[in-house]
């Protein structure tokens, strides 16, 4: 038996659509696997009632297939589904790390990233790896067709999750098909600023680099109260605010001394829009961790 804690993640970080990702120190899924002749999946925890246990429909089923590793699998969800916090990816990442260990497949963490990404194709239609990469490797990740690079970074964060669901599949439909040269130049500049900020663990640069003129404005329209939440986070000292993944969670970078006030401001703004929300005071954290074997 192998048990793995796989963290929630925030993809895109504004300027890095489908490329950037960050592991969050909390919340997390816990995935336990045991060898079995046939694969079965049991899901408990946050939002378990919305998650299919059929291996054809659960993200971990694709991981089992790819690793040829049938197992009795228990997923204890700490990451709410349809959150923008890489819920579907956390289970896939945890299963990839756990099954690799259980069956002694000997794959490196980097090699497990495309395998876990197959699970994302099951739910969103695209095997985007920007959530599974940080959930497996930890830190700040840059994923391209050439693979994933990661660095550790110490950046305090708030992720504020409203009590509404936005599916990644639906939110991909509003992504513009084209961008102007001006938008491209702005986005490259912001993404580069953010990446330097991560390497320096500098919340000012990370926040500055989160700005994105192309995808985020379209996605923000799907989140009731977004503009107020963003404004209140900045008022409380946030250095940057954007949609986390495909939403509806909103992520803010800040200094540690401001994190509590940023969280309070974001919660208050959602409440003002008539929406209950939960704020996680978190930071960039480690990747999937083996808890027991
Ligand atoms: N192991 C899993 N964990 C979470 N969601 C899953 C899992 N397997 C399948 N799903 C489905 O994936 C969808 C949520 O994924 P997605 O829309 O990408 O949201 P998130 O941003 O939270 O990952 C839901 O429809 C859910 O039923
Ligand atoms: N790059 C993807 C990331 C989706 O993240 P999720 O946490 O919402 O699953 C996208 O923006 O569609």
Describe the structure.
- The protein is α+β, with helices and mostly antiparallel strands.
- It folds into two domains: 2-151 and 285-292, Ribosomal Protein S5, domain 2 (2-Layer Sandwich); 156-283, GHMP kinase, C-terminal domain (Alpha-Beta Plaits, 2-Layer Sandwich).
- Helices cover 37% and strands 26% of the residues.
- It has ten helices and eleven strands.
- The chain has helices at 59-67, 87-102, 109-124, 132-137, 168-172, 181-200, 203-209, 216-220, 226-235, 259-272, and strands at 2-11, 20-35, 40-45, 71-77, 140-144, 147-151, 156-162, 240-243, 250-253, 277-283, 289-292.
- Strands 1, 2, 3, 4, 5, 6 and 11 form a seven-stranded mixed beta sheet that branches. It has a four-stranded antiparallel beta sheet with strand order 8-9-7-10.
- A hairpin with an 8-residue loop joins strand 1 and strand 2 (20-35).
- Helix 1 runs parallel beside helix 2 (87-102), helix 2 (87-102) packs across helix 3 (109-124) and helix 6 (181-200) packs antiparallel against helix 7 (203-209).
- The longest helix has 20 residues, at 181-200.
- The N and C termini lie close together (6 Å).
- The mean pLDDT is 96.
- It binds adenosine-5'-diphosphate (ADP) and ligand LJ64HWYM.
- Adenosine-5'-diphosphate is lined by residues 50-52, 58-60, 75, 81-89, 91, 123-124, 167-168, 245-246.
- Its main location: cytoplasm.
- Catalyzes the ATP-dependent phosphorylation of L-homoserine to L-homoserine phosphate.
- Its EC number is 2.7.1.39.
